[in-house]
Specification:
This protein is an alpha/beta fold and 269 residues long. The protein has nine helices and nine strands. The protein has a single domain, classed as 3-Layer(aba) Sandwich (Rossmann fold), CATH 3.40.50. Helix content is 49%, strand content 15%. Helix 1 packs across helix 9, helix 3 runs parallel beside helix 4 and helix 3 packs across helix 9. The longest helix is centred in the N-terminal third of the chain and has 28 residues.
Length: 269
């Protein structure tokens, strides 16, 4: 009896392991699909698209021929990124929107949405993040600013943009994708980064839940890096670069894989 029980448990474990490894290998070693054809072009909307993962992602989709909308607060870096994208592909249209997501969420969202009127957005990438190191017992105004940036403003933007994407049809089929940038801090207990970790956990779980509601879900792995956070050398060695992360994200889009990682989420409608 016990032998049969162990055999059944072993089979269940093996199937679970294969269910985890196979999708991960598919994404890891597969090249991105023809996303331009799959989503019919359109615009890719990226928050925090002027540095790090967002910039790397923008450059890759520009090379594919997508038009791009970048939202960030640093106007100089926005302009530099726009120039870099035009060097990669002079045919793409690049729209830059200067906005600080840590400001009043409702006003910032209205400011951004007004500039998107009439644009066909096929991919949403909620990537911008704001992290500070401080004790929860000694908070500053930055505590609420990162809460606004990482959760509230992104939720406002999601609520304004996702319904349109979810009902975007191409040749009679709904086509669009949503990506969320979370963080390893969402899954480990980090002192002096309590609020930051909680905000990133929200985004990751939003992506997980949405993947069960959308027509199909795709998870792809990443480790987020932030210019405002000093990562230990060991963590930097095992972390992926922004370019590697963007490549994995694009390899995952359009493929129905599950449970690759809970740190990064992308959902296809």
């Amino acid at each position: 009896m016990f032998t049969q029980l162990f055999i059944v448990l072993g089979i269940i474990f093996l199937l679970s392991l294969l269910g985890y490894l196979i999708p991960q290998l598919i994404v890891r070693f597969s090249k991105p699909l023809d996303l331009q054809n799959r989503y019919g072009g359109g615009f890719v909307f990226i928050t925090g698209g002027n540095s790090g993962i967002g910039e790397a992602f923008a450059k890759k989709v520009a090379a594919m021929g997508f038009n791009i909308i970048i939202v960030a607060r640093d106007e100089e870096r926005l302009n530099k990124t726009a120039s870099a994208l035009h060097e990669i592909n002079s045919q793409v249209r690049v729209i830059t929107i200067k906005a600080d997501l840590s400001d009043d969420p409702e006003k910032v969202t209205q400011q951004i949405i007004q500039q998107l009127e009439g644009l066909d957005i096929s991919i949403l990438f909620f990537n911008a993040g704001y992290g500070v190191m401080e004790l929860a017992s000694n908070p500053t105004e930055n505590t609420l600013r990162q809460f606004h940036s990482n959760i509230v403003t992104h939720q406002y933007l999601f609520q304004a943009l996702y319904p349109k994407l979810a009902n975007r049809y191409m040749n009679g089929v709904r086509r669009g994708a949503v990506l969320f940038t979370s963080s390893i801090c969402a899954f480990f207990q980090y002192p002096i980064m309590v609020v930051y970790g909680a905000t990133k956990a929200y985004l990751g779980h939003l992506g997980e839940c949405l993947s069960t509601e959308a027509d199909s879900g795709v998870n792809s792995r990443f480790d987020e890096r932030s210019n405002k956070i000093k990562l230990p050398k060991l963590l930097k060695r095992v972390s992926q670069t922004p370019d590697e992360t963007a490549e994995l994200a694009l390899s995952g889009l359009g493929r129905v894989t599950q449970n690759i990682s809970k740190i990064y989420q992308s959902i296809e409608t």
